[in-house]
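User: quick one - fold this with magnesium ion bound?
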Amino acid sequence: MTSMPQELRPNAWRIIEQLPVPILTMDMSGYLTSWNLAAQALFGYTAQEAIGRHVLFLYAADSAADDPELIELQPGTSGSVMEVWRRKKSGENFKAMLTLSVLHDDTQQPLGLLAQLSEVSQTLPPQDRQKLHSSIIEDSDQGILITDACERIVSVNAAFTTITGYTAQEALGQTADLLRSGVHPADFRAQVRAAMLGSGPWQGEIIGKRKNGELFPQSVSISAVRNDAGQVTHAFSIFSDISILRAAEERMQHLTNFDSLTGLPNRTHFHQVVDVALASARRHDGYGAILALNLRRFHAVNDTFGHEFGDALLRQISQRLREALRDEDVLSRFGGDEFVVALLDVHKREHSGIVAQKLLTALKPVFNIEGVEVHTSASIGISVFPEDGTDVATLLHHADIAVKRLKTEEDSGYLFYSLEMDQKARERWQLEGELRQALADRQLQLHYQPKVSLRSGKIVGAEALIRWRHPTKGMIAPGFFIPVAEETGLILDLGDWVLQEACRQISVWRRSGLEVPLISVNLSARQFDPLLPTRMQAVLEHYQLPAASLQLEITESLLMRGAEAAIQIMNALVAMGLALSMDDFGTGYSSLAYLKKFPINTLKIDRSFVMGIPADQNDCAIARAIVTMAQQLRQEIVAEGIETREQMRFLRALGCDQLQGFLFSPGVDAQAFETMVRTQQRLALD
Ligand code: C2E
Ligand code: MG
Ligand code: MG
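Assistant: Sure. Structure tokens for the protein plus magnesium ion:
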């Protein structure tokens, strides 16, 4: 019996009653007012049981919260469709599509709601399910193979054929031995059987064999199929070809362990290999050595010929080094121009020196790259196991210290690490930190050493010399910290400070009315870059100084960075009105050919020649030659480091113009220098 809502016209309800679609109505508060036969069939409640109850009793246990029917009571939202969860009388929850419509009376007032439900089928009919399963098997990109209780193949899929090369016809009736490579783990079959007797599948990686004989790694899962009586009727293996994965893994492995340019082991791999070797050397009281090899001036090759050329050179170098070594020696490239060799079996410390020499010799013959001939050389630092360290990191660090030491001496060759080097390296490191601090904390100061004319005895100039008032160590001489600053690049900041400070002092003196003689400032080769003229201009402008109030002392070492480039920068500085002086002349690379090209107006004879005057014949001859040459080039000659009157007389007789040395005065602070100038202190010339 179906109760009919008064509001619905009898005919309309009769039709609804018969419809195969579950339909129910409710009033505006959610109480059921009608219930058709299809609703009864779906939910299992008769109309009598359902009508009059609140619609919530049909909701699945935890779906009451979203209460869609009640939300849908809003007029104007009629006809919406949604997916909901409901519960049957049997207690079973099910998913349904719900369509809701608002019912109106003749005056368009809402009367209630009409809900139409249809169950969303969760399961497939058996024939569809089978179709689905077989298409999943067939389309899978994993190979699938099914065997019967006698272990004969009864079914394979398309991927099986793609991977193994066997067609279904070829495989059916055979056993899985068809794919055996013979390199399975010894107890492979036993393992599989054991797994089948148990509950889970056997899973693992094995090597299979394709029809063409090729072996391939596969990842396999083998499971048993049992009948209702629990007997194994079939087994199926699902496998995938993981050779691509393996190849990628191997490539990755290679990339992380080997240098892509030379194919040599890289730093990581070197550490691994040598760590193991050292551990065994420790057990056998063996010796070992690490040779850190840096190419000399390799960056110049890169700069001149380009990176591809540089790469080709590195490849050839690595070949030569490899050939010079024994098979058991480890050669590796750490990047750039850094190669490292581990000798794992040396009987004496000296033997590693012999190997180093062999490597240097191997690099001697000219390299030919794309028809261009290049020479190269290297510095090698050696640390020996166990004396210089017992682990790779320490040995590498020490070999590095030794090679750095060689490099600062601009020398190729090899050098053994020593404890004293380590000490020096530590001190340098500490010094660098302190020097940075000194710059920030204004611990630096300029002293001025007068230059006097050898004609008049008057002060005609001064050299600004940097001093470091260390808070605990007292006054530190530049000879101690300038080389560290050069090595670390700190010289750029330091040099800027010196320029600023000298200009500031000159401007203070000028404003106080002092007749300031020409002040010269030392420049490091590293400061000598194309932007130097611009920087100089800015400082001069800032202190409103004419360029002629400053002279720059440069050394021949700046030629190391390329003579032509250096000459261009010099020309720019001279064009601004600055004077240039060649410092320490005779000690460096002294290329007289270049000296003619340099726009310098002053030459300083180095103290090392002055020292031997007048007793040492050689020094006297050199001094004479330098003076003669400078006179021809019309350069002023300053002799530095003059301590005795004999030296003064000799050099004056030669024709030197100026003297700088302790004979007249050491470098003194700005205040003291000002006093010397104001009181017109003179050098007695006799
Ligand atoms: P330098 O430019 O050749 O400076 C001359 C050095 O000789 C100074 O040493 C000076 O004090 C010393 N000297 C002068 N007359 C005599 C003498 O009669 N006897 C002896 N024994 N020595 C004398 P200092 O000040 O120790 O400077 C050493 C070097 O440090 C300088 O050699 C220069 O290359 C470098 N230096 C000094 N100040 C600076 C600077 O501000 N910047 C740069 N880049 N280098 C600087
Ligand atoms: Mg100087
Ligand atoms: Mg000098």
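One thing worth noting: The chain has 24 helices and 27 strands.
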